[in-house]
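Review form for a predicted model. The reviewer records the input and the model, then writes brief findings.
Reviewer: anonymous (R2)
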Amino acid sequence: MRRLLILGLFPVLVWGQLSLSGYYQNWNAVRSGGDYDLMLFRNRVRGDIAYNLDRYSATVSLDVRADRQAEASELEASVREAYIDLFFNRGDLRIGKQQVVWGKADGIFINDIVNPLDMRQFLMQDFDNIRMAQPMVKGSLYLGNWTLEGIVNPKFEPGRFAKEGSDWEFKIGIPDSIMTPVPRFNSAVPNYIHENKEELPEASLENSEFGFRLSTFLMGSDISLLYLDGYNDFPAYRLDSVVPTLEGFVPVRLDTYMTPFYYRSTMTGVNFSRPFFSTVLRGEMGHFSDRHFGDLEAEQFFSVSDYFQGMLGIDLSGPWGSALSFQGVRRHILDFHESMMEDESQTMATAMVNGAFANETIGLLALCIFDVSNEAGLLRFDLDYRGIDALSISLGTYQLWGGDDTMFGQFSGNDNFFLKVKYSF
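Model under review:
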């Protein structure tokens, strides 16, 4: 009888360690100019299952997304995250598909490059959805006021871009054609550039990515030293072959074949934040070795240089309980050549207002990212109603501007208004 009672209680005890949560979201976006055509109709369901005990826990996050954009429809079901946590006296270990966040910047990725990015909707989604979780091992060791975190990623995965012809297809980069001089004939001929299938690093122990973060709280400041040895998530292009078309012995056309490939690069960086009364000063600085930049005059169509980028930001208390945030960002190619396709330096600035009002039933988010160097940028404005338990309704807009050859300006025709309805459970 006692055995039967224990067996009967076992499912109850197991169920008591489970927690279920998630949400359903409907997202509609229409273009704010022209004919106000539908840009996105999305239904998304996410479910998170967690099982917790004293010495370990397990988490699985499932994601199902159905999109309709213009004439195309897409259904995607995925395991968003799936990992186990093991807890020890002076540390913990997380094994499985996970996100690792190493940044302090708002709206911009400086040192936060452990996970690749899903740019199929550019920056029009929450950062939790932009970061792509990866299978890896992360361990943390706690030694007094110090924390040492190490990661190992055995299999590289690249970032993801929108498909050719979609609203968010990247249009800047290697051109479709250029005029190439032929000195022997004192002329220039059209050179058509073709892209081969990309080359991915072979999945092997030798190609594993690894890194560490050493963090401490020192003299009132939160400081982290970072190191990451891995592959750049976005490809460089290598020249493979050039095929001339001749009329007699005179070239009248060239066809150049390029192969996108991924290369290793190390990042050494530092993050910090320091509170001053109701103000917080924070920053990130990173040095990136052996970055590859497009160079149409180089032998292989790319040049290699170290690269620096840094951010300095300040967080302030605003009126009516709001929070204000301002950031300055600087990027610089250390060994720059005039023939490189990117600018030697780039300066950006961001401003953000975030707050909850009317007994926290109204949420406000306004974020502006301004590319000072190229006079381009992005503005997001989001007004969120949370007056009903578990239900939020958001109305907002994304506005982009700048030249066609800038990161934001290439999407200036994608200004949109959106409506999101989210039910959490």
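Findings: The first helix runs from residue 2 to 16.
Further findings: The chain has one domain: 15-424.
Recommendation: see findings above.
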